[in-house]
Rhamnulokinase (Paenibacillus haidiansis), 486 residues
Amino acid sequence: MANHIAVDIGASSGRLIHGTLDGGRLKLRELHRFSNGFRKMDGHDYWDIDHLFREILTGLAKAKREGIRECTLGIDTWAVDYVLLDQTGERIHEVYAYRDTRTNGAADNFHLRMPRAEVYGRTGIQELSFNTLYQLFVHDSGQLKQTESILLVPDYLYFRLTGKKINEFTNASTTQMLNLERNDFDDDLLKLLGLSRTQFVQLAEPGDRFGPLLPELMEAYDLPECELIVVPSHDTASAVVGVPASGENSWAYLSSGTWSLLGAELAKPMNTLQAMECNYTNERGAFRTYRFLKNIMGLWMIQEIRRVSGEACGFAELVQAASKALPFRSLIACNAARFLNPDNMVEEIQSFCRETGQPVPISLGEVARCIFDSLALTYMDCMQELEKITGNEIEVLHIVGGGANNALLSQLTADLTGKTVKAGPTESTAVGNLMVQMIACGLIEDMTAARKLAAESFDIHSYAPGAVENKQELISRWKSLNSQLQ
Ligand code: ADP
Ligand code: LRH
């Protein structure tokens, strides 16, 4: 089939992107874009999952109006969040957003039942306060008892479109409940949550063919004939497929969107004590690879300063304002829990700077500069850890996702890491999603061929590392700031 559509829903926005192979290149066309975000109700943060479902239908109906009568379709979204379904397939609850504060302290409480090192040994997954394991641990036990099936968000969207249930592998790994050796849910972890394996469904691998849209949806909304394909439904897993890299072990990726996910692709997991102490994760990648990476707070902080300032300017203008501000004047420890979901990100950053005896950034440009400088320094630390743990010397860092639009951050990252940075494609998640559909259809041979195609199809900007004034002094300042917080 010549037409392929990726539904890619990040925490900040969703899109339907049409992909075709044209003269040996992958051509993308945006069919539909919509905003996403969580909202507070009764003191908790929730996603509006029905809104997302409706937007998918709207996008598909547009595709049909634009002449696409037949296509394949794959869906990816952010990770960890889930839907509980009862016996009739109805949702038992609204979908909690992972930044909701109900999981504060949940990891520590869970580890009283199974020590942190044992959980890591079994799952290889980094501790993030919002992993599905900890979310389910604090979920209402009455609702868990009523639950027939637990689907993650993209699994649920596949279900709404087809009536069929799966737990897709790459996203299932982010639950922190898959056993690395058994490649299935870990019975002991499930037992500690009071759950049974039968409440999850069959695990499905990216590249599997899935099935058609429900005929009643096609009719009611005048949709094209779609065959759904199982793609890496964790957005970061799709983004990693879309990295235009070549060779083995000499490149790393930074998937740069709401989160910054920095890491390497490995053929085998690395769940050593050192990896655990550095909080590296072994999420499943497409085609039985492992995404050895770390979550860094990312451009969420930029999205939030923009939101609390009334969205007075766009992202490009924020970057421009930041480039006029003094470099490395004030720094923040990006991964501190206080930046996960503060009421007011600007004030939180200002308080941090005040408390640590640094100049307080005032203008939006100064605050943005503080974020970009601090992110680049965090990337530098992460790259050093990555090389140390894996023993691989990295030559190129590929930045993909919306953050690849940010030339200031890309150059800072090259300067501080000392690596060549290659930025693009900005829609790598949709690209990876589409590539897996094309692999499933036999149009692209494998992931290596897919990455070559990505390199040939998109503009990739290279940033050579430049000098940083007083770099050693800056690094000492950065390290001492972070050690004050441990
Ligand atoms: P997600 O999929 O997590 O919602 P995206 O990959 O869409 O995130 O990336 C969104 C981020 O990309 C924004 O937070 C913003 O910082 C960055 N971005 C998007 N467009 C631009 C631009 N023109 N200039 C600079 N940064 C940009
Ligand atoms: C990025 C992402 C990331 C997860 C987080 C919940 O969108 O999927 O990989 O850790 O959201």
In short: The longest helix spans residues 364-390. The radius of gyration is 22 Å.
